[in-house]
Amino acid sequence: MPMPLWWGHINKRVFNPRAVKGGKWPVLTHVGRRSGRTYQTPLDAFPVDGGYLFVLVYGARSDWVRNILAAGSARLRVEGAEVELTAPRLVDETEAFAAMAPDAARPPKLLRISEFLRMDHAGA
């Protein structure tokens, strides 16, 4: 796992609420797989052909990733618009980088990120 989980807990409780309220970051809205609660997670969203790609900084075992995989869908607020996303699937870095625009920022190699989440536009 590239980033330590304790940092994820700090992000979840301290920085994420500020990022959601700030409105500058893309925000993924998803439903808890056990609680049924609605959650909002700010993160980087890379547009790809037919959908979006998300960098899994904390790996595929993050709560938000498991919630989306279980639900099969989520909503993304990006640039003031709401986008319905479906068909979540984990992809490796080869597939992720092939899907990204050539000039898109890549995660630093130092983080050793090898897992990504890809989702399609609903109805696409």
From TrEMBL:
Determine the domain of life of the protein's source: Bacteria
Q: Which GO terms describe its molecular function?
A: oxidoreductase activity
Question: Which Pfam families does the entry mention?
Answer: F420H2_quin_red
Which Gene3D superfamilies does the annotation name?
Electron Transport, Fmn-binding Protein, Chain A (2.30.110.10)
**Name by which UniProt lists this protein:** Deazaflavin-dependent oxidoreductase (Nitroreductase family)
